[in-house]
Structure to design on (81 residues):
């Protein structure tokens, strides 16, 4: 996370958490979310134990994340933009 960015919302489930920042970035941690979000996640370590950023897709481009909700079952997350 950039040093000039701040966390505005956080939620989690069993074995994962998700964070939304003021600049609209979405980060997650935990091996369950790392495995579930394989197409949109990025971390330079390529390691499921390290936090990663969830990248926006072409369908979500232009939307700014503001809030997140998470559910234990199946690593479900919802991002309010």
């Amino acid at each position: 996370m950039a040093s000039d960015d701040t966390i505005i919302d956080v939620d989690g489930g069993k074995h994962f958490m998700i964070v939304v920042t003021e600049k609209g970035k979405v980060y997650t941690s935990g091996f369950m979310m790392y495995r579930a979000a394989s197409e949109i996640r990025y971390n330079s370590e390529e390691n499921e134990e390290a936090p990663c950023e969830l990248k926006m897709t072409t369908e979500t481009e232009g939307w700014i994340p503001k809030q997140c909700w998470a559910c234990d079952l199946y690593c479900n997350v919802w991002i309010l933009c």
Notes: The radius of gyration is 12 Å. The mean pLDDT is 87.
